Amino acid sequence: MPDLQKATNPAPRLITLVIVTANAEEFGGKVPIPVPADLGELQGLEAGFRSPVAMIDGKPFKPAKAYKDSKLCNMIISHELNRRYL
Prior knowledge:
By secondary structure, the chain is mainly alpha-helical. It contains three helices and no strands. It starts with a helix and ends with a helix.
């Protein structure tokens, strides 16, 4: 972050690439089944992802949901970095 904060010309930018996961008409919304991203109350973090908890929402692992949750986390991090540093 210090390098990003020091940047002046051009203006600092942080680019996060994500694919659409909420729209069932888009490729990301169909990978592999339309299941919504949902972080719950972050129970999986609190539990330390120990078995049988494998997801950030505290539920068992589902590959498509894990993918979509990770994209949602990327978007949240980008939003928070913008809020804090720009």
